[in-house]
Amino acid sequence: MNIILLPLYFVLNASSLLPPSFVSSLFFSLFLCVCLFFSFLVLPLFEEEASTMADITHPPMEQLQDLEYCIDSNPPWAETMLLAFQNYILMLGTSVMIPSMLVPAMGGSSGDKAQVIQTLLFVAGINTLLQALFGTRLPAVVGGSFAYVIPTVYIISDSSLQRINDPHERFLQTMRAIQGALIVASSIQIVLGYSQVWGLFSRFFSPLGMAPVVGLVGLGLIQRGFPLLGNCVEIGIPMLLLVVGLSQYLKHVRPFRDIPIFERFPVLICVTIVWIYSVILTASGAYRHKPSITQNSCRTDRANLISTAPWFMFPYPLQWGPPTFSAGHSFAMMSAVIVSMVESTGAYKAASRLAIATPPPAYVLSRGIGWQGIGILLDGLYGTGTGSTVSVENVGLLGLTRVGSRRVVQLSAGFMIFFSTLGKFGAVFASIPFPIFAALYCVLFGLVAAVGISFLQFTNMNSMRNLIITGLTLFLGISVPQFFNQYWTSAHHGPVHTNAGWFNAFLNTIFSSPATVGLIVAVFLDNTLEVERSKKDRGMPWWVKFRTFRGDNRNEEFYTLPFNLNRFFPPT
């Protein structure tokens, strides 16, 4: 009891020393509240739990249990449709952000930007459907990737393209150059995937090595979180608080039947509320005299998508004209293909855990990378302006809603295709301000990072070897890309700056990716430091049975191809 009353005694004796100003009184009141809370609530909890601390155990679990629907179980159809539409709304952020950044630099107009967005959504729907049916078969959305920005900027800045005076002609020629580079570079994933080389390389992965890599898949996207949210805090902060409040504190509230709507549909509910709020702010003139960056981030009418999008447009291959091919452009784009392959591998690991599935075997992982390569080939043929990778935010949504159903993602692909052809309707949803998405990213990217870190439960974290590997991988995975990105911001080019532009773009892309840097460090250290003596410490006894398709009976349930196609493509 004396320990509990000690903070109160300290506060009462210190009150006479405070100056009688408003600010000091405010801080004193806050300090008093903290001390009261600590004295009467926190310390008694410590005393109660100390006796039972030794009895608490959390054994490693191969599959998460805290989800409502796994990969093969499906919610009711009405709920499934709403969940699928929620996935579509979420992936709009990246699908609008990338063309909004690249198309103006290519010389394109607002109409060109709207057409590129529609094309990107259309191809994303096709790629998602192919991946869910014939690839890894995990509930993973495949969409545009920021990994392709650096090689794309290198192509845009090509002197032969910059000499074109007419902006629309320069846009067309640049798009054709990007298409040619994507078509050639897609061969990397197609070859590594279908030849099973990537699956063989994955045998060097362990829970210890993949934990920080998957963690970096989420943590490496911090620049798309609060930095973007901060551009419009009057929209972003309410959105962040609303998402956390509804999905976590009100998740057990069920106003309609037995459906936890606040936990199941937090994106739809929160986006609708804050979007209407942002429309009201825009219409009332709240941003009339604000800086341009604030207006571009906050206003709902700055994207010019609704007015410029056609009522109906059906994207088709080579709609921008025949692709042009350049060896330098293709080599530069190959770096982004490698990065997207690494990031997708980490995202597949996270998606399998959030879908209550086993880690994808090497054969399934290679199959997924091969289909992703075909997806990049489609990006090049249709002209999306960027390549494809697994959408990390949609992987996080599996955990936030506790629904890992494959059918939900397959239906979301249908929404992508449908709304990409109905230009005006899709443009309405695409006009959602970016800070709304940034608030969602803060939650979802953090959730994916936590899933990665959870793989450490299968390792011995009392081993100094494992601590060093984990710590060094996480630190370098964040620090090295941060150095490259800061250099790019200040000097408008990466640290690698030679006369060979393709070489610069290649290395700058590789080392600007946290997951790729993390994979290089983790795989090297984990397979060279005391390997034989550390098999159990690395978690290999748990991991090894999932390397082959027939290593665990559950693999057949989760990853078997549909339509009895395994007869023609037998797994290994």
Please provide a written account of the structure:
With 572 residues, the protein is mainly α. It is 66% helix and 1% strand. It contains 26 helices and 2 strands. It has helices spanning 2-14, 22-50, 77-106, 110-134, 149-156, 159-162, 167-194, 197-201, 207-219, 226-229, 233-249, 261-264, 266-283, 292-298, 305-308, 327-354, 362-382, 392-401, 406-421, 423-430, 434-454, 464-491, 501-510, 514-526, 540-543, 553-559; strands at 142-144, 388-390. The protein has a two-stranded antiparallel ribbon. Helix 9 (207-219) crosses helix 16, helix 9 (207-219) runs parallel beside helix 22 (464-491) and helix 16 packs parallel to helix 23. It starts with a helix and ends in a 13-residue tail after the last helix. The model is unreliable at 1-51 (pLDDT under 50).
Features:
mainly alpha, 1% strand, two-stranded antiparallel ribbon, single chain, 572 residues, disordered N terminus
Summarize the topology.
Elements: H1 2-14, H2 22-50, H3 77-106, H4 110-134, E1 142-144, H5 149-156, H6 159-162, H7 167-194, H8 197-201, H9 207-219, H10 226-229, H11 233-249, H12 261-264, H13 266-283, H14 292-298, H15 305-308, H16 327-354, H17 362-382, E2 388-390, H18 392-401, H19 406-421, H20 423-430, H21 434-454, H22 464-491, H23 501-510, H24 514-526, H25 540-543, H26 553-559
Antiparallel strand pairs: 1-2
What value does the average pLDDT take? 85
Strand content: under 5%
Question: Helicity level, as a percent range?
Answer: 55-70%
Q: How many runs of DSSP E, i.e. beta strands?
A: 2
Q: pLDDT under 50 segments (min length 5)?
A: 1-51
Describe the biggest sheet?
2 strands, antiparallel
Helical region count?
A: 26
State the strand order across the main sheet: 1-2
Pfam family, one: Xan_ur_permease
Subcellular location: Membrane
Membrane topology: Multi-pass membrane protein
Protein name: Nucleobase-ascorbate transporter 1
